[in-house]
Amino acid sequence: MKMVADFMVEVPLIRQDDTVTRARQILRDDLFREIYIHDGKKKLLGYIDISDVLQIRSTKSNVTVEGFMKEPATVLENTTIEQAVQSIREFRTDSAAVTDERRYIIGGVIISDLFPIIITRHELRGFAGDYMTKKVVSCAPEDPVQKVYNLIIESGFSAFPVIKKGVCLGIISRRDLLKAGRVRSVLENHTSIPIETLMTKTVISVSPDDAVQSAAALMVRYDISRVPVLESTRVVGILDRHDVMKALVLV
To answer: What is the pTM of this model?
Structure first.
């Protein structure tokens, strides 16, 4: 049986007295959403995520990460991936810190690595329409790229459908900005580049009547974290990995 140790990766770490601007520098250039906070000797204290660090807009600030620290999802390396998924599901994070019994950090596991395994080992019940989020946070093709980061702060999500006149034209994500190498310029120069120039135009979608299992398979096949739910061309909801995990029967 696959255990947490089989999926463990190196995760970004920061000390409790480090500044939020340092955390932002680490997270803005990396696909990780969370950075783990330790006491200087790798004892886990908490975590801070991308939504928190983007609240500090100044390039120089003495504000430390300690004031933003939250309780993280944690697992031991000899536990099952089911336990890791349960912890990630409970804390609604993208990762879980792997620690020893004294809470010293060994590494981490991320949802994108566990998701393909867990959905094939356990039953997913229901349909996309049962679990989708109906209040869709979206943007327009002419919106400036900076809006993506505003939406990350406001919503906590990192990918958004791009909609015009009710039709989904594409998806814009933090990953798209990282691929384009535009993260630093967007945050520091307040660039007005329109979203449509960087968005992914091929939209992978599902309908409300599609089985959650089918939606999960699409996420794995195309390595995406969210899919819009469409009725004809109209977006009626959005389904992400956490929504799918609500349908997961873990026994």
So the answer is: 0.86
